[in-house]
Amino acid sequence: QAWIGGIRAGSVTSCGNHVKASCRWIAFNAEAAGVLGIVPLECEDGGKRTVSQLCCHSDVVTDFDFSPFDQLLLATGSADEMVKVWRLPESGQDMPGSAGLTLGPGKGSVDMLQFHPTADGVLASGA
Which of 27, 82, 98, 99 is the most buried (most CB within 10 A)? Predict the structure, then answer.
């Protein structure tokens, strides 16, 4: 029933997810390096959805994951060797300008990220 059009998705240089959803948001690799597109899952204003940009990293976002315990918590990893954790807004608010937590730089590109499905607060990354 609902359709999201006009999305300009990113390149296939991502190692992990290209699209991921929580109960409130859909995130996807955008055309610009280091940027994720963020779309609300629920339609507002008669079915129109606004695509926002989350400027995450200085290089390609290689993977991202939503926490299964907090659907507003998004972790991003990048070729810039950083992992960042973001708190997305409820709805109708601006995207955050900076991450709540930044880890790195490490010793290589962050290729994969995953929140643990049963242990709250545990995030694994692979380089």
Answer: 27
